[in-house]
TrEMBL record:
It comes from Vitrella brassicaformis (strain CCMP3155). Residues 43-346 form the Amine oxidase domain. The lineage of its organism: Eukaryota, Sar, Alveolata, Colpodellida, Vitrellaceae. This is Amine oxidase domain-containing protein. InterPro entries: Amino_oxidase, FAD/NAD-bd_sf. Keywords: Signal.
Length: 527
């Protein structure tokens, strides 16, 4: 999850004992670096870690922003709490960690990071308005630890029928999720020990065998539950349970292929959402990435250049690659790892060949904005009175509430510190899929909606209360039709072309855990 996706500590010197320089096998010239990683977000930093673990010791990381983190963006702010300064961390980027996120937990352990309970579920501190029915019901005071990610209507907790429906639906989904497994490369048979949702790459999915995984998530749920003999109430429950993904920038379940939701909407996430045991990294996921970069840099294995704008690259299969920067300097490297969202509008400096252009030309993003306001908690919208409440689709029988993506209305409004004095509000907005980058029209629309909702259209009040606004190039993805046509097999076949490799959310799914998991796969497989 955006966003709604997660103190710098140095690793003990024994963790990375002296590592010898590893020259690459096909080097014809002398290059400055073994590997150049373009992008200092989760996938780029994860790749650097695994390269060092494998023996690489001369890595260059180039980041066009002036900070480490990419879509991990945590704002450290000193709030005025009744005249007393209070340090608080606000997550504008990715947030959520669950207990089966093995990659993040291993890295956090290595780099000395801790976790804390992420409970936005106390009454009235979390509000979702996706131009649809209310997605979450605030927990009553008797359930103070239940997270708002819970799809259960907790104020009807004594309704035995609803509880039975929920348990039955969750059990059925778990069985369905586990039944989709990877194919063993040696035997050609399904491997029950490898659920597709746990695989590090979407290329593991055989869409000839499982074409339904390219169906929209809501259709997949309806079809599979019907096959299981379950009724409309079970289907509705499970479709509602997917709303957190929709509200977190992953588009509508009426469109997004189930193969993507399979990655994030795992049985453990469903269980932890209900129990309220979802966590986040103390200080945010930015703290983890900064600790990793600081440690690798201190060991002399990694050089990082921030505010580094690349204007051109020369990539040859039998020569070191040349990277030219806007300040006139040049660097050479044996291999390049592209670790930022792979859309053609942002990759012009790579001089893509015909196959690369065709593959990445099929990729869309879901623009996503996050805004931190110094604004009173008492101004939180009320789900029962909001003018944005509900969008009834009368084109179907029976009439149904639909998730409407593309209107730009706030998908999530959160008060992570509740009504504590001086605490601010976070507003997350989702826009419909597009192939280009954020443009000024979309940015102005995003700002105007927040201005209208909280400040009665007064732009000066918006600016006076604004701490930060970020516009994310979020959720790179393709359609279900492209999945069936072999997009992910073509993407995997590009790895190593002109000694260039690709990692990030497109290769698996755009969450902190899954982006970094693919980077582990990339280094293990190709380096």
């Amino acid at each position: 999850m955006p966003r709604l996706c997660v103190a710098l500590f140095l690793l003990a010197s024994a963790a990375f004992a002296a590592i010898d320089f590893l020259p690459t096998a096909d080097q014809n010239g002398v290059s400055d670096h073994e590997v150049c990683i373009i992008g200092a977000g989760p996938s780029g930093v994860g790749a650097a870690h695994h390269l060092v673990q494998k023996g690489y010791s001369n890595i260059l990381m180039l980041e066009k922003l002036d900070r480490i983190g990419g879509k991990c963006r945590d704002i450290e702010r000193v709030d005025n709490a009744n005249g007393k300064p209070v340090n608080r961390t606000y997550p504008l980027g990715q947030i959520v960690i669950i207990r089966d996120y093995e990659e993040i937990r291993e890295l956090a352990d290595i780099y000395g990071q801790k976790f804390e309970l992420f409970a936005l579920g106390v009454p009235q501190d979390f509000y979702v308005d996706f131009n649809a029915k209310p997605l979450f019901t605030p927990a009553p005071p008797s359930w103070p630890t239940i997270a708002s990610f819970s799809p259960l209507e907790l104020n009807s907790i004594e309704d035995i029928e609803e509880i039975t429906v929920a348990l039955t639906a969750a059990t059925a989904y778990t069985a369905i999720w586990k039944s989709y497994v990877a194919i063993d490369e040696k035997t050609g048979e399904p491997d029950p020990k490898r659920p597709l949702g746990d695989e590090p790459t979407l290329s593991s999915i055989d869409f000839d065998r499982y074409p339904e995984l390219a169906d929209p998530a809501n259709k997949f749920i309806a079809d599979r539950f019907t096959e299981y003999g379950l009724g409309p109430k079970h289907i509705e429950f499970m479709q509602r349970a997917q709303f957190p993904l929709e509200a977190s920038g992953y588009l509508s379940a009426d469109f997004t292929p189930m193969a993507y939701f399979f990655k994030a909407f795992t049985p453990p996430l469903l269980v932890e959402g209900v129990l309220g045991t979802i966590q986040r990294i103390v200080g945010g996921c930015t703290a983890l990435l900064e600790a990793m970069v600081d440690t690798l840099s201190a060991k002399g294995k990694l050089e990082v250049l921030l505010s580094a704008e690349i204007v051109n690259t020369v990539r040859e299969p039998d020569q070191p690659s040349l990277v030219q920067l806007s300040d006139g300097t040049e660097r050479t490297c044996d291999r390049i790892i592209v670790a930022f969202p792979q859309i053609t509008a942002d990759m012009q400096f790579l001089d893509l060949d015909e196959e690369e252009s065709d593959v990445f030309g099929r990729v869309f993003i879901a623009p996503y904005a996050s805004t931190l306001l110094d604004f009173s908690y008492e101004k939180m919208p009320n789900t029962k009175s909001s003018r944005l409440y509900g969008n009834l689709d009368t084109s179907v029988e029976p009439h149904a509430y639909r998730s409407v993506v593309g209107k730009g209305q706030p998908a999530v409004i959160a008060a992570p510190y509740g009504s504590q004095a001086g605490a601010g509000l976070l507003i997350y907005q989702s826009y419909d899929r597009q192939q280009g980058l954020w443009n000024e029209t979309l940015k102005q629309d995003s700002v105007q909606i927040v201005t209208d909702m909280f400040f009665d259209g007064d732009a000066s009040e918006y600016k006076a209360n604004l701490t930060e606004v970020d516009f994310w190039t979020y959720f790179p993805h393709v359609s279900g039709e492209e999945m069936r046509a072999g997009f992910y097999q073509r993407l995997e076949a590009l790895q190593g072309n002109r000694k260039t490799y690709f990692t990030g959310g497109l290769c698996n799914f755009d969450t902190l855990e899954l982006s970094m998991l693919y980077s582990r796969h990339l280094v293990k497989t190709y380096f």
